[in-house]
């Protein structure tokens, strides 16, 4: 897993989140805590919508118990790292499948 | 009944949330507005943000962020913003949300619920006075309001309650205030026998000058006095005797007011009720206004909003119950926490209130009893059982408190209260009525599986579990249906979800285990543990894997009780309800 998510993934994550967090998500520092940047707008209801949007955008599935969603969905950078990790796992599992 | 004093727990540290409360915030700001001092509201900008933060995407407002919208919270939020001179966010959307709780002849508190006068008052005033809208059918609403009148002249909570003669000064105020809003928009004759209504309201005045809510109440209080005198004033009438001397007699050393003789706490509702009464009874003197403003400033929170008394002493029944529920049996503070809960009652209502002086609530009473309150007080427990019987609605269910429309959360809490304090010889609950209400919440006729919280609400796991516990109480449990619901909402990685089977949450998982145990359905501890691990952190428990761990004592309580249950399979969880 890359340290910060690939630039392409970071861009696609921003696009996926924009319907829920607005245009500001395009320019927010990738490492900034989303709850800090967006305040009450990034509550658990919005976070759920963001998780669903990222799942749809990348064709992955988030497990709310097995994955530490609070950690991984805290910033754009972490979401991108999580996505890249899941995609890498899928390729790896697929290649062994 | 002897009027209760303020609940105390000498020697014990009663937990306080330190959080603002919406009802307190509305009461404080409205009082300041009546005094012409709303612009001086302490921490005004933070209070505005606090209120705006209750707004949901559907245009309505909720008691706390993340909860569904309801008519009461919507009125309080929109009215508070108006009192503070703040514009509403998209009032047309709020008006549309209010139209969504229209039942066809009156308003309900939430979509799909039966209408009651509490909700009808809040929704009518939100639409007409605050959103510039009209009601969907004025003639039908006036007719519904007219049917609230009992044979004795007073108004009741719904036409069905009126048939049973259950009149109350609060219902009179709410009914009259809803008519007043309609009349201000376009003149309409009051839809009642006004002389009989005025006579009934005047009859609630005691020889002291204060009023009670109902004929069987003995202790006058400021809340009842404001509601009764407010209703009389709206009808162009006045009490037989000037209530001002009695109101002014309820002042404490600091000059602010207490709710009833002997209570000794100058809470936010006392200031609200006193100023509300005095406005129509001779006016508010500058000295009284200054004392009230000083007191309200003491109840304001720097984070915005108000609580009911000094924040460091503003305990509530849910947090106190939670502390008692997780205390060890020999914890030295446990008896005092229970005594505090036992003191958290109004003079004329025997259930436990959320906050002292606020009005008895079914859920809070259940939490207090589960925490051991009244365990050593058979007379108190018996009074609660009798109070509960009077709360059963004509449709067979229970609402949050007296006169509120029925819902499954409250109905499940009510039957659990009866399990805990019911004694042979207590007045009977209407068991067929309970079954009928549960049946009305069954979504099968809408092509869904399970139950909704109210007749028109979508099915959820927790509503199904509440229905199951009510049916179990009346001997009609359906284990197969409950097992099926638990399977449908079981989240693969651990825990249970309220909707679907994706995001598990603490409350649903708690109620799933409690209900499964109650009905003898096996619980796989290995399925619960990963969920508990995921929602635990050094900051405390979180309500779901997505919610932040904020150290909420209620979440910590349910989490710890579940841990105990897994460690000791014979242990049984109290069947608590929350939302």
TrEMBL record, chain A:
It holds the Pfam family PP-binding. It comes from the Bacteria. Residues 12-64 form the Carrier domain. InterPro entries: ACP-like_sf, PP-bd_ACP. This is Acyl carrier protein. It comes from Streptomyces radicis. The lineage of its organism: Bacteria, Bacillati, Actinomycetota, Actinomycetes, Kitasatosporales.
From TrEMBL, chain B:
It comes from the Bacteria. Pfam families: Prenyltrans. SUPFAM superfamilies: Terpenoid cyclases/Protein prenyltransferases. InterPro entries: PGGT1B-like, Prenyltrans, Terpenoid_cyclase/PrenylTrfase. Residues 20-64, 69-235, 334-455, 465-520 form the Prenyltransferase alpha-alpha toroid domain. GO terms for molecular function: metal ion binding; protein prenyltransferase activity. The keyword Zinc applies. Its cofactor is Zn(2+). Keywords: Metal-binding, Prenyltransferase, Repeat, Transferase, Zinc. Belongs to the protein prenyltransferase subunit beta family. This is Geranylgeranyl transferase type II subunit beta. It comes from Streptomyces radicis. The lineage of its organism: Bacteria, Bacillati, Actinomycetota, Actinomycetes, Kitasatosporales.
